[in-house]
Description:
By secondary structure, the protein is α/β, with parallel strands linked by helices. The chain has 2 domains: 164 residues, Rossmann fold (3-Layer(aba) Sandwich); 69 residues, Hypothetical Protein Ta0175, Chain: A, domain 2 (Alpha-Beta Complex). It contains 8 helices and 11 strands. The strands form 2 sheets. It has a 7-stranded mixed β-sheet. Strands 6-7-9-8 form a 4-stranded antiparallel β-sheet, covered by helices on one side.
Amino acid sequence: xxxxxxxxxxxxxxxxxxxxxxxxxxxxxxxxxxxxxxxxxxxxxxxxxxxxxxxxxxxxxxxxxxxxxxxxxxxxxxxxxxxxxxxxxxxxxxxxxxxxxxxxxxxxxxxxxxxxxxxxxxxxxxxxxxxxxxxxxxxxxxxxxxxxxxxxxxxxxxxxxxxxxxxxxxxxxxxxxxxxxxxxxxxxxxxxxxxxxxxxxxxxxxxxxxxxxxxxxxxxxxxxxxxxxxxxxxxxxxxxxxxxxxxxxxxxxxx
Length: 255
């Protein structure tokens, strides 16, 4: 008996960039096939959610991505942009005001004046009005993150400290992350969220189907509230995302 395949797939596909949609390998195996699949399924709304700033993310997309997303969450979800029909990227002002209200005034200046923990410095070339991007020069990342949290507490500053990628530390407005950015889009479709590191925890928390990339160093047990529903493709990178989408297409969607 012939099984009739669904004609199209409709969902909100949210993906991290570095290490997920675009692993370190260049050219990336499977990327063209993934982009071709998405073009055949216009019901899939594509959003990228990255720790990069807007300028850095757009430069990367121009160099390595043929199929652009409809929405782009940058700076670990503290900034949200939408792609206009003429190709311009328009900032979501409502989300910017909301995230800005959660960002403590003069946080960066106060924290830098007090002195960062040993081994921690500013990330070169990263500037944001609603995020402080730091990196670990030497030492233990978890210890540095705890020292940074303790310093914020002593200064009376309410902010989140997110450690990721084995050397990055982001100070974020409380309650603001990649998950809050994509949830703000309010897209009435099942959400599939693909990521590879701790800064994707917010995505997995709000996703109907969290996806942890096959080559991620993050153990599934550390993947937060979404781990019980988590899927790990066999293939890494875009080939793994395509593998997961093909399975959803065969069975008729997320469920």
